[in-house]
Design the sequence.
């Protein structure tokens, strides 16, 4: 079975600071990787995804993530955060042999951006 | 286009009771999956349905069950409720299983007293 670990539970940054949220997974096979975001009072929504190809993927709102297969990592980055990025961020994996949408989520990272 | 609709929004039950939660996927979406979210365990996969068939099931006891109807609407049922079943239950839909994007509903907040 796969598992996902997010290293930081809470992150506090000032506006314009750079962001990197760590995500590591354990699974020996091929996976699809996702970052979801939950803004206060809103639904979980997809931020970005990696299926194959270029390991550096770009998502909405200036976010990007890099898949490093050798490290089983899929870290989320943003060069300059804004107050509106305050949210909870979830890393998730879907093992391809599931043949469906059986996501395993990390524990989430709460990001607070101070104006 | 309406999003994923979950009803009810809040539920309060007592131990030993049973509960049924409902999910209406986005129009045209045929895959529905359910997740349990708690502060301690985070988001955990419950099950996924497609074409009225359960495709995947998470590591939950048999008290947790679900079904999908021909119009893709889904229900999940929890019998003999326990205090630990208190959680936010999220439904997500996608066009097909393995689709790249899940659309989540707002969830049903279940409190078991």
Sequence:
């Amino acid at each position: 079975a796969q598992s996902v670990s997010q290293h930081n539970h809470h992150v506090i940054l000032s506006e314009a600071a750079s962001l990197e949220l760590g995500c590591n997974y354990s699974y020996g096979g091929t996976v699809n990787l996702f970052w979801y975001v939950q803004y206060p009072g809103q639904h979980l929504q997809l931020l970005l995804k990696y299926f194959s190809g270029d390991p550096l993927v770009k998502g909405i709102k200036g976010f990007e993530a890099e898949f490093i297969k050798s490290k089983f990592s899929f870290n989320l980055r943003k060069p300059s955060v804004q107050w509106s990025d305050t949210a909870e961020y979830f890393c998730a994996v879907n093992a391809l042999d599931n043949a469906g949408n059986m996501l395993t989520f990390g524990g989430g990272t709460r990001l607070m951006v101070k104006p | 286009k309406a999003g994923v609709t979950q009803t009810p929004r809040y539920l309060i039950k007592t131990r030993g009771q049973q509960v049924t939660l409902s999910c209406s996927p986005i129009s045209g979406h045929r895959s529905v999956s359910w997740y349990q979210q708690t502060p301690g365990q985070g988001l955990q996969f419950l099950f996924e349905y497609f074409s009225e068939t359960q495709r995947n099931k998470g590591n939950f006891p048999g008290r947790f069950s679900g079904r999908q109807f021909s119009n893709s609407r889904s229900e999940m049922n929890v019998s003999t409720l326990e205090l630990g079943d208190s959680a936010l239950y999220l439904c997500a839909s996608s066009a097909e299983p393995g689709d790249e994007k899940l659309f989540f509903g707002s969830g049903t907040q279940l409190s078991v007293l």
Chain A has no helices and twelve strands.
